[in-house]
Automatic annotation (TrEMBL), chain A:
Record keywords: Membrane, Signal, Transmembrane, Transmembrane helix
Membrane-traversing stretches: 47-68, 80-104, 110-130
UniProt superkingdom: Bacteria
Name the UniProt record assigns to this protein: MFS family permease
Signal sequence range: 1-31
Origin species: Nocardioides soli
From TrEMBL, chain B:
Classification via SUPFAM superfamilies: P-loop containing nucleoside triphosphate hydrolases
UniProt-recorded name of the protein: ABC-2 type transport system ATP-binding protein
Keyword NAD: no
Statement: the UniProt record of this protein carries the keyword RNA-binding: no
Keywords: ATP-binding, Nucleotide-binding, Transport
InterPro entries for this protein: AAA+_ATPase (IPR003593), ABC_transporter-like_ATP-bd (IPR003439), ABC_transporter-like_CS (IPR017871), P-loop_NTPase (IPR027417)
Source species of the chain: Nocardioides soli
Source organism phylogeny: Bacteria, Bacillati, Actinomycetota, Actinomycetes, Propionibacteriales
Signal peptide (residue range): none
Length: 160, 277
């Protein structure tokens, strides 16, 4: 196995994703009891998973590692290679359905994190879904378009 | 090794580093100055972490502004930031090993040797398999120092490396640093500078106000330090010494008992001139 995998797994912040997993498990159990997963909660659940993936990028040792030859971009990509499958797997197990909405929210959160810092990146998907519900609009109107745009922003900010 | 010309870095309206020119070849170069003087910002530029707004910077003969050359510099650089975070769930061995992986030490056996070498250099071999969260502040600082030492860097950039170390560990740090080719180090500890540094730079509010040898910095106070049994209100600074007499800085009155200045005297006088120009 490549030498970076194990320490990267251990250095990644898994607590947010684990917390969301527990919440989703409880919600799923309640939904099973009541008959079905309440449709209005899908957006919130999706945003929570997206936010937890972004929160996994938080790195307490960032300052110490800032001047190593393996760049920040590569280290972040390695974390995402672990966080994204875990987050998407969790979402498929607990919520299910087409992945595009989750992809749009996660990519947007990551783009915000890269340009404005991890805390704002975590807040972005949650704030968006809450706002959409408050003003009563669809939280994923054009997920493929959002994914492409956010993906482009993420790519442009990859070395930040 | 380090060639900085007219470096400038601003945050919003604050000029953290203002027109700094610095050149360092071999040996230990000390950076003194009060909090907020711009030492950390300057060191972050010297560690390729922060890009200067203006000026030119060359490290190890290479340009840190170019991505390819920056990687080459980083392969030969060790950096200890002012507040080095660590992973609390890692052991010192895990932490240093991870840094060695990121420093491209791919051969497992050689990496193991290197990790042990640096952990022994900072005398952490006895606790290297304990969780970092259970270590003392001084031990954590030495874990971070060990990370900077991985791969025997040609250039060490250290931001207050003696932070949290006890006197014995400070002494150990001295012998470590004299083994590296070029060290640029910010410190608040003036005795460290007199013991270690071939060159010293003193910064105030972003600017270099003194560059020279420690002896030259002490020499700034030549003929301007005197001792007397009574406190002289005209001195720019005065304090009671353990012998019971007062040590004064400033323009001595005629007939005063002028004494040899120390590095502290030179630094304090410089700081005084800075505040009351
Ligand atoms: N990231 C930052 N954002 C805004 N201001 C900063 C930042 N880093 C440093 N500064 C400001 O720049 C000045 C120099 O700070 P610093 O380089 O940390 O000095 P020192 O290490 O000598 O204490 C201070 O006024 C500080 O408040
Ligand atoms: Mg500082």
């Amino acid at each position: 196995m490549t030498a970076w995998v194990l320490p990267t797994v251990r250095a990644t912040s898994w607590t947010p994703l684990a917390g969301v997993a527990v919440c989703l498990a409880v919600a799923s159990a309640l939904a099973a009891h009541g008959g079905a997963w309440p449709g209005t909660l899908t957006g919130v659940a999706t945003a929570a998973v997206a936010a937890a993936v972004v929160a996994g990028l938080r790195d307490p040792a960032a300052a110490l590692l800032a001047a190593v030859p393996t760049s920040h971009a590569v280290r972040r990509a390695r974390r995402l290679a672990l966080l994204l499958p875990a987050g998407f797997g969790l979402w498929l197990a607990a919520v299910g359905g087409p992945l595009l909405g989750l992809l749009a929210l996660t990519t947007s959160g990551l783009a915000v994190a890269v340009w404005a810092g991890v805390p704002l990146g975590v807040a972005a998907p949650v704030l968006w879904v809450i706002t959409a519900r408050a003003v009563d609009i669809d939280w994923d109107p054009r997920p493929e378009l959002v994914t492409v745009a956010a993906g482009a922003a993420l790519w442009m900010g990859r070395n930040r | 090794m380090i060639e900085a010309i007219a470096l400038t870095k601003s945050y919003g309206g604050t000029r953290a580093v203002d027109d700094v020119t610095l050149s360092a070849d071999r040996g230990v170069i000390g950076l003194l100055g009060p909090n907020g003087a711009g030492k950390t910002s300057l060191l972050r530029m010297a560690a390729t972490v922060l890009a200067p707004d203006e000026g030119s910077l060359r490290l190890l003969g290479l340009d840190p502004g170019r991505a390819d050359e920056r990687v080459q510099i980083r392969r030969r650089l060790g950096y200890l930031p002012q507040s080095p975070g660590l992973y609390p769930g890692f052991t010192p061995y895990d932490m240093v090993d991870y840094v060695a992986v990121l420093k491209e030490h791919t051969d497992r056996e050689r990496r193991r040797h290197e990790v042990r070498r640096v952990l022994e250099a900072v005398t952490l071999q006895d606790v290297m398999h304990r969780k970092i969260r259970a270590l003392s502040g001084g031990m954590k600082q030495r874990v971070a120092l060990a990370c900077a030492l991985v791969g025997q860097p040609d250039l060490l950039v250290l931001d207050e490396p003696a932070n949290g170390l006890d006197p014995d560990q400070r002494l150990g740090l001295r012998s470590l640093l004299s083994a590296a080719p070029t060290v640029l180090m910010a410190t608040h500890n003036i005795s460290e500078v007199s013991a270690l540094c071939q060159q010293v730079y003193v910064m105030f509010t972003g600017r270099v106000r003194f560059a020279g040898t420690p002896a030259e910095l002490a020499g700034l106070a030549h003929g301007r330090v005197w001792e007397d049994d009574r406190q002289d209100p005209d001195a720019v600074r005065s304090w009671l010494t353990p012998t019971g007499s007062y040590r004064h800085l400033g323009d001595p009155p005629s007939g005063a008992a002028v004494v040899d200045p120390t590095l502290d005297d030179g630094y304090l006088l410089l700081a005084r001139m800075e505040h009351a120009p």
